[in-house]
Amino acid sequence: MNYIVFDLEWNQGSSRRDHLLHELPFEIVEIGAVKLDEAFRETATFHRLIRPKVYRHMHRITGDIIHLTMKDLEKGDPFETVAADFLAFCGDDFSFCTWGSLDLTELQRNFEYFHLPKLSEEPIPFYDVQKLYALSRGEGARRQHSLERAVTDLSITQDLPFHRAIHDAIYTARIFATLPEEVKKNISFNNFNAPKKRRQEVHIVFDDYAKYISREFPSKEAMFLDREVSSMKCYLCHKNIRRKIKWFSRDGKQYLGAARCDKHGYMRYKIRVNRTENGNCFCVKTSKFISDADMDALRLRQEKVRKRSL
Fold first, then answer.
1. Containing domain of residue 284, as a range?
2. Tens digits of per-residue pLDDT, 252-298?
3. Are residues 289 and 217 located together in one domain of the fold?
């Protein structure tokens, strides 16, 4: 199995009134990638420029960052050609790695816009190296460091300029190779294409929490009627456990609840409601064991939400 560490550069429209901004907010203009083997050794690279079809003028901020002009990009190939060559470079047995989660989303969005076959019909597992780097430092998964900061902190040789796709892919690959094996167990899922069927739903257990990604539902109300969504289970016992705090929400987008396993203790549940582009919804539910003090804090939070709704 190989690791495909890739990075994208893209251009965008210059006017908020541009009707394409919703359909294609970012048009990819450069793809850079590094292939690593199972020992995290570099075995091949991929680098191509893409000739734009949608945004024919370089956004001033984009041009300053990536140091490319439209004249440079005119030498590139159509996205369809580069995308096919990139997939051929990836091969059959691989996992994607990126710095952050946005590149994989925009890659799929560009595939969709140019009417290419989907990379996947369901969530794609991948390695978010930015998140893994934060975890390796003992920080939360949401802590975001810049690529340049990570390269500097790890004393990685800076022999290439940043903000070019192939260079950033090389730096990301070098960082990924240095991370501890324990950290690399924390795989992420890109939900550009949410599960459509129950068999496509994601159930995964990490060292200290579990994650569930539901299939699509026509409404939030229908989603919460599903037992798998609304139930509270111990991910170690695999049984429903006694509910202590019913689901509550401050904004209707994130729901919290808690239960107690007689064997393993209190567990907090969090549901994040996500909307799809076709108007359906799905959820990402996480469960995590918490202390008695955390449980008391959650009760206080529930009470504040209740009082605010009166």
1. 196-309
2. 999 999 999 999 999 999 999 999 988 999 999 999 999 999 999 99
3. yes
